[in-house]
Amino acid sequence: MLRWAVRVPSDDETIPGADDELSSSVARGKRSEALLTVLRGEGEGAIHAITGSEVVIGRSAEAHFPIADDMLSRHHARITRIGNVFAIEDLGSTNGTFVDGQRVAVPVPLEDGARIHLGTRTVIHFRLHDRVELDVARNTHALTLRDPLTGLFNRRHLEERLHGELAFSQRHGDPLSLILLDVDHFKQINDRHGHPVGDAVLRALSVSLAELTRKEDVVARYGGEEFALVTRGIDRDQTLHLAQRIRASAAGQVVSAGPGSVRFTVSLGVTCLEGGDRISVDHMLRAADRALYASKDAGRNSISIAPPRGTPTAPITTLPPMAPVPSG
């Protein structure tokens, strides 16, 4: 009978023939890095690495790990780290914190693989990794959520988050807004200056969008030269003010194009839900899309707003087009 013996190198050994970087990357380290993953509930699949001494979990946008579940308290539970020991405590939540089925009354140490139940709908997995495993988990997760060119969220994640944000808005009566925007005459930019310059325009716009929005807003590349923004807690006038800032910021961008430069504008379509009106995600997307096309029809570099429940003939308000920006 043939027998195979497999020898696993110890932590202080290197792999024969491998360079130092590869050797260090495959060396097995201590599993002292903690990662939280939402298994069930709003934001299923979301992750959060515990990089500091504590993480507060709750429905508040100010929590370290915010989860838009109205069965959670604003600051629901806290995980603290002392050395390589992690413990969880309930922060006086209404619906309780449970670890592997046991209610948390005092701080409880967390074991690798523990399942944390928050309220009645959210389940979080607690897992320990070494640094290499943690980096891989983060990078793999980012690939499923992010657009590789701009680093913004992708369309799939945007639509998933919009479902959750709409449900939260309808339960609490909070305002919710959706903005769709795209780059005016983008094909002409690509045709005249080449696709690398077009990509640079999209990246410049994505940086601007990230700078103008809040941590709790959802900013995504929706497709091609089209972007989307979901924002909660601001009313119609505040949303239009944000849209105007986005429009003005885009018009002020200058992107290098070989020996010259390129400038560009964007058109925006806005829809706002106030008072928890019972509409669908499809209603909001169609309304914002109608408003976007109204901005284009009005001469581009404009902002239009449509009612979220509007029919194809519902009135759309278009702000006056701004003066076009000359191309460099």
Description:
- With 328 residues, the chain is α+β, with helices and mostly antiparallel strands.
- Helices cover 30% and strands 27% of the residues.
- The protein is built from seven helices and 19 strands.
- It has helices spanning 20-26, 131-145, 155-172, 186-193, 195-212, 236-251, 281-297; strands spanning 33-40, 47-50, 54-58, 65-66, 77-82, 85-90, 97-99, 102-103, 108-109, 115-118, 122-129, 176-183, 218-223, 226-232, 255-257, 260-262, 266-273, 303-305, 317-318.
- It has a six-stranded antiparallel beta sheet. A six-stranded mixed beta sheet has the order 13-14-12-17-18-19, sandwiched between helices.
- A hairpin with a 2-residue loop joins strand 7 and strand 8 (102-103).
- It is flat.
Helix and strand arrangement:
Blueprint: H1 20-26, E1 33-40, E2 47-50, E3 54-58, E4 65-66, E5 77-82, E6 85-90, E7 97-99, E8 102-103, E9 108-109, E10 115-118, E11 122-129, H2 131-145, H3 155-172, E12 176-183, H4 186-193, H5 195-212, E13 218-223, E14 226-232, H6 236-251, E15 255-257, E16 260-262, E17 266-273, H7 281-297, E18 303-305, E19 317-318
Parallel strand pairs: 3-4, 17-18
Antiparallel strand pairs: 1-2, 1-11, 3-5, 5-6, 6-9, 7-8, 7-10, 10-11, 12-14, 12-17, 13-14, 15-16, 18-19
Helix pairs in contact: 4-5, 5-6
Question: Count of DSSP E strands?
Answer: 19
Sequence of secondary-structure elements: HEEEEEEEEEEEHHEHHEEHEEEHEE
Shape: flat
Radius of gyration: 24 Å
Q: Specify the number of helices.
A: 7
